Amino acid sequence: MCGMPSAESTQASVHEPDPVRPTKEDEVAAAGSELIGGPLGRRALLGASWWTPVRVIALVAIGMFALGLVQKAPCYNGAWFFGASSQYTHACYSDIPHLYQGRGFADGLVPYFDRLPGDMQYLEYPVLTGVFMEVASWLTPGSGTIQYQEQWYWMVNAGMLMVCASVIAVCVTRTHARRPWDGLLVALAPAAALTATINWDLLAVALTAAAMLMWSRGRSLAFGVLLGLATAAKLYPFLLLGPLMVLCWRAGRWRAFGTALGGAAAAWVVVNGPVMLFAFEGWSKFYTFSQERGVDFGSFWLIMAQNSDDPLSTDTVNTLATLLMLACCAAVAALALTAPRRPRFAQLAFLIVAAFILTNKVYSPQYVLWLVPLAALARPKWRDYLIWQACEVAYFLGIWLYLAYTTSGDAHKGLPTDGYHWAIALHLLGTLYLCVTVVRDIFMPERDPVRRSGDDDPSGGVLDGAEDVFVLGPAARPRRHVAAQFDGPPVDWGRPGPTGGSL
């Protein structure tokens, strides 16, 4: 009949629920939306106009990235070159222009193959990041003063990193299909805008975000390949394989994990193999440098060292940091197997990377980029996310003011050592706070924003709704999780019904 919905459209409405409205379920998002005209309507959520969530969030991410470039303007206009202290007082420092000449790109040296002058000897970055840096040098004009070339090199890298930032925002937006607007957490992250062009970490973060998207779509091989490439750009992405293995163990999805592991190993070998074979000494510099590097900025190890008359040796710190990290890995594994309901992949991915950051002997300010997309997927709650971001912004300012203090001579402009220790503590407490909220969500799934809206594990791919086959402890029982009409907590099909049977 005319005007009556068809059977197909009725069925589609049952199986294709509306996206989650952040302004309806999150009081901070609702309050913030008043600045742009109030909560989102149904048409905006469904993408009825050209302004779909993906397009809006991508443009917001580009806009925030551009603001981060503006924040670096004082350094671009001279502080990088003419004043060691002023690049810190303006909080606009970046490794990129300094390493253009310092790592041989200005002289046309080939990374890993050509020896550098000075103590560094070889480029101390993973291979794929080295390729990224080399490509940017090819696009940099080779004429003019060295300052002019360094400005161009930074700008070329900024353009390439902006693409990475857009990829991250889009991938997070598409990972949780019913929660596209959670991508705004990534796009609007102030700490990400401030640290995006300090170094080249966004390349590995973008590849990791793309890998998470592929896993959420059930594409295990693509996930593995992208994660292997991410690990070839930065070390931390391989950590995600640990929690994924334990979750696949609990769900009995060994085939998917094996495919992912094989893809990751193959991609890493393809990138690293040729350099390992023909320039092993240059290739290994990243790993030996990481091992030999002493206690450095941002870690609790630095607070201990600067308050001790007999600080621990580098070898001792390496051993203790490794043991701490292994303990955290064991804790995450136990959490995955004993939780009353199988944790979401994004939750454990966030926890394991956060553990690495908290226990590591160095925390550079751009490392916050590693956690930004994982935090948005693990705990999409604006209040908690902004508390953590505020702590990271405070640390960003604290480290540059501390360096200004140490480089300003007798003037002592900036933050003294004790003040910097408080900035480190604030970063550590902010990250720990977000970890605690994620762990609480795991033990109390009804408080998890993702599961409260009716999903099981939208970033989990083959794990989403899967039946548990192996658990530990009395709190966890094998069960199958199915979303209950997308408007409440998932149904536990393993729970006895009123008559003693299964629901």
From TrEMBL:
Residues 15-25 have a biased composition (Basic and acidic residues). It is found in: Cell membrane. One of its GO terms (cellular component) is plasma membrane. The keyword Cell membrane applies. One of its GO terms (molecular function) is hexosyltransferase activity. InterPro entries: GT87 (IPR018584), UCP010361 (IPR016570). This is DUF2029 domain-containing protein. It comes from Streptomyces qaidamensis. It comes from the Bacteria. Signal peptide: none annotated. The chain crosses the membrane at residues 50-70, 122-140, 152-172, 184-215, 221-249, 256-280, 317-339, 345-364, 385-405, 420-443. Belongs to the glycosyltransferase 87 family. Keywords: Cell membrane, Membrane, Transferase, Transmembrane, Transmembrane helix. It is a multi-pass membrane protein. Residues 1-25, 484-503 are annotated as: Disordered.
